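Attaching the record inline, Q. Sequence:
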Amino acid sequence: MNAVLRPAIVVLVVAPLAIYVLGLRFACNSTDLRKILQAARLNEELEQSRRATFHRIDAREETVRQLIAQRCSLSQALARFRELDGEYPDHILELSRKRGGNGSDTERNYQYVLALAKSLLENQHEENAVVSRRLERDYQQLRANRQTPLDLPTKQTISSGQSRLDPCRK
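Structure, as predicted:
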């Protein structure tokens, strides 16, 4: 390459890059930079929250699949749902309770189990009817015996790392 051509190419490449960097430096003051960094942190927090939420949704669906296949009882499935509820931040759980009306957490979770079962068996009408009747019968029996799952973990037992053997748990 010609000795004159090489420096000319370097100047043509480096000069616009230098102008861009200097322009960026003067265009972004520290307040703008702080806002950009804050938005990046918020984006990362939202991404973590999204991953955790999808994990809980997947775990609930798997629990209902186990329940449909009769590999666990309704009581165990409700206990698993309550355990998953304990993973939510308190303010999210309170919003869910307000939206759920005056029913208990067990009632709200039962309705969620029923809705998921119907959704999973949407195209299997006969099995959907059989499973719905079985779940309704089991729930009525739980209510009649006042056997709402008493061995449900609290937030303290979940956060302390204690685990239980649960056939509904994947």
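Residues 5-159 form one domain. The CA atoms of residues 82 and 152 lie 7 Å apart.

More tomorrow.
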